[in-house]
Amino acid sequence: MAVRSSGAKSSAGNKRSVKKAVSLAETKAVAAAKVDARADKNSLKLDVNVFKEKIVHHLRCTIGTSEKKASKLAWWQALVATANELIFDRLTQTQYTHATKDTRAVHYLSAEFLMGRLTVNNLVSLEVYNTAKSALQELGIDINELCEEETDMALGNGGLGRLAACFMDSLATLAYPSVGYGIHYENGLFRQEIREGRQIERPDSWREYGCPWEVCRPESVQEVPIGGFVETQTAPDGSIRKVWHPEHMIKGVPWDIPVVGFRGASVTILRLWESRPTESFNWDVFNAGGYVDAQNEKAAVETISKVLYPNDSTEAGKMLRLTQQYFFSSCSLRDILRRYNRTHFHDYGEFAKKIAIQLNDTHPVIAIPELMRLLVDEEGISWDAAWEIVTEVFSYTNHTLLPEALEKWPVYIFEKLLPRHLEIIYEINYRFLNEVVEAKWSGDDEKKRKLSIIEEGPCKMVRMANLAVIASRKINGVAEIHSKLVRENLFPEFSTLWPDRFCNVTNGVTPRRWMLACNPGLAELYNEIAGKDWPLHLDSCAALRPYADDPQIQKRFMDIKFKNKVALAAEIKKLCGVEVDPHAMFDVQIKRLHEYKRQHLNLLYILHLYRKLLADPAMRIVPQVFIFGAKAAPAYTLAKNIIYAINVIGDKINNDYRIRNQLKVVFMPNYRVSLAEKIIPAADISEQISTAGYEASGTSNMKFSMNGALTLGTMDGANIEIVAEAGVENNFIFGMSVKDVQELKAKGYNPWDFYNSNQDLRAVVDWLDSDFFTEDRQALASIKHSLLEGGDPYMVLADFASYCAAHKRAEEMYADKARWAHAAIMNSASMGKFSSDRSIEDYVHNIWKLKNYEIKDEI
Fold first, then answer.
1. Positions modified as N6-(pyridoxal phosphate)lysine (predicted)?
2. Which of 700, 727, 703, 732 has its CA nearest to residue 804?
3. 3 state DSSP class of 626
């Protein structure tokens, strides 16, 4: 696709616009005539009056209050109860269909499911949002205010959890038999507060007063052993049997959250495990006066599902983290076996034909030795038969190339917590090294050391990623470039052993939440141009591409964007107390705070721009608002210092009258899904600036592009595939490629070379080591130290000049309204590939081998 030139359109161009306008009218007529068959079959629409009556009924009979005194919270709970009538009926029908047909199902194990709020999403998926809105309006209630009563489900941290939530949405929408399994965290990662510019962590008690969407299932409680020792028993016939004598038993209580498919195609469940002691407390100790001691065991067990990702910098933290992973994996496997045996009565000949288990990153990999233990020790299956089952049912998704994220656990912790699992891991490792590796690389001890599940050293470690690769039938990366690096850089020897095991499934996001629900103005435009089925067939949004230069469509598209920016400006004022101009270019970077994501590169550019404005009082630029949202891990000091730097530098800039409000910097606290739903539709620029080769895929990049933001980013992760679809000329690519990064590292990267050779760069880096922004000149010095003395591990300084040039191009394009509108439309209309529906179909056809089932009202 050629780069369009800026400037006035030719007369020929104007004639083309007239033709396109006529064509647009024809397209709308055709689109209006389209009717998806499923819309009729699965219609769950209710009359406004009936919906209103049901809300009032639940307000009185379920919540126990009246219209005259009900709080907004009570009205919201009544609205949820009304929606649940539809949802749970559909869930029952779904489960009945799957049970009667004895379906093959996928079981998605993930430590994170970042579900966000469900009210709008569920009402939209049921196609009753407008009905509910009208019903509440007649009752004098604003649905938007009610939805603000809902707390985000704090069950994840970032992209990993949000991806899992999108996948559950798509599995339900596409009607594939599935169950999501995770942990019922009492608190999420943390609720972030900003005090004097610094991140403060507070408990994120998302369900302090209960959650009306979830249902407890005591009939499916599981008990999980932990600790203790293993006894070897020898039978009279000489056979050996292992008996685990655990020190404790933990009760896993399941909570089900229904996940609604679009138009009620099906309703699947997310089953989350809450840890409880098998006894509520020690009655004898309590009765003897040990009131506190009687609660100790209860408190210790409940800690397992207390918080997402406890700090594992201490031994106690490591033990808790591994216990969490084992607890939810074991509960999930026991639940899978329970469901299977309802039909197959402990005959495991069909198990691998009916069960697929996807391990979402390394967190649930402990499920591999646990399933071996359950099959061999508890079900009496031979080792070889059990291993054949295990290697058929498990598949593993790798989400990172970072060594610190490829989990390794000390062997001594396994000895304390999971002694039987350690024996099983040793046996798996022994057979793999002596049968598989030896056959391929006879006598090569170095290969064995590299591929071993056990890492030798002063502290022996269990490499969970190696275990996952050895036991999984498929291993996938999450973007084309990432999957290539997984094969070639991360697991090259494993790829040589089993080339057919490695594949790619590029991530995707659900257009139901990330366009239809969060950007209704844009959704309506697509309804008219692409037909109302576009949330099911995102590639049909390409119907907008021919009108990317149509003045009427450009105006409508950008008016929708401006309305979203006005709403976000109000939110910024409310949360941050900063006035921003919606006409300014909104430049957004929202994601987990990590050095490889390079928020500090963004910060250096802001300082560069600020310095130029101060140096030339007459200088005029396109007004820009830089918007950040991020949480830093509590023990990640440098990441927290970067948050502090963004805030204090932003405070200085925002109150500097000399720059005439041409530059604003905003850090939005407590970044979460519900906040992202407000930020993403309003963004002009999507910052995706990770060091090439470090971001596995990204999903915010897809959400931004769908909503008409232009990507300013490196050729990393899914950015490569996004610009291939939308056109590199409609985005702003900068910096080193993966190959460039690898070559510079091999040659020997020295950040001082870039610092000394670029006067502007040196000036802004030195600015961090001054008292210009804070009285304490050392307050921001750690960032400078990481970039210079620390070796700049993510090559921020190497990409700085190219990054500045990309921003310059963005500023120039933003000044050309027609050119910008063209690029925004082309991005939004070109994202069909990045629907999570496409991702799930890839998993289904290449890994899971599932069949979907039409859900009928059969009960």
1. 703
2. 732
3. strand
Same CATH topology for 102-117+152-507+843-848 and 522-731+799-834? yes
Q: Where are the domains of the chain?
A: 39-101+126-151, 102-117+152-507+843-848, 522-731+799-834
> Is residue 631 among the annotated active site residues?
no
Please check whether residue 528 is in contact with residue 522, taking contact to mean a CB–CB distance below 8 angstroms.
Answer: no
pLDDT number for residue 237: 86
How many other CB atoms sit within 10 Å of the CB of residue 179? 22
| pLDDT bucket at 715, cuts 50 / 70 / 90 | very high
Annotated catalytic residue, options 90, 513, 591, 838: 591
pLDDT of residue 403: 83
The rounded distance, in Å, linking the Cα atoms of 476 and 479 is 9
Q: List the catalytic residue out of 119, 173, 699, 711.
A: 699
Average pLDDT over residues 497-522: 98
* Coil, helix or strand at residue 289: coil
Residue 353 annotated to the active site: no
Topology (CATH level 3) of domain 102-117+152-507+843-848: Rossmann fold (3.40.50)
Q: What is the DSSP letter of 277?
A: E
- Please tell me the predicted confidence (pLDDT) of residue 298: 79
Whether 807 is catalytic is no
Catalytic site residue from 703, 807, 819, 822: 703
- State the average pLDDT over residues 279-288: 65
The C-alpha atoms of residue 581 and residue 67 are separated, in whole angstroms, by: 40
Q: Which of 521, 553, 581 is nearest to 821 (CA)?
A: 553
Least confident of 51-60, 402-411, 484-493, 538-547: 402-411
User: What residue has token string 């207390």?
Assistant: 306
Q: Is 373 a catalytic residue?
A: no
Query: What single-letter amino acid sits at 140?
Result: G
Catalytic residue among 90, 104, 321, 399: 399
The pLDDT of residue 474 is: 98
Does position 16 have pLDDT exceeding 50, yes or no? no
Distance CA 107, CA 358 (A): 6
- The position carrying tokens 């030195």 is 766
Please identify which of the residues 20, 271, 463, 597 carries the catalytic annotation. Answer: 597
CATH fold of 522-731+799-834: Rossmann fold (3.40.50)
The encoded tokens of residue 578 equal: 């900063």
Question: Alpha carbon of 105 to those of 341, 561, 675, 858: distances in Å?
Answer: 14, 41, 33, 20
Find the catalytic residue in 54, 58, 373, 592: 592
Question: What's the mean pLDDT in 30-47?
Answer: 48
3-state secondary structure 644-693: HHHHHHHHHHHCCHHHCCCEEEEECCCCCHHHHHHHHHHCCEEEECCCCC
Query: Tens digit of pLDDT for each residue in 559-590?
Result: 999 999 999 999 999 999 999 999 999 999 99
Average pLDDT on 72-88 reads: 97
Q: How far apart are CA 161 and CA 448, in angstroms?
A: 34
**pLDDT value of residue 858:** 82
Q: Is 98 a catalytic residue?
A: no
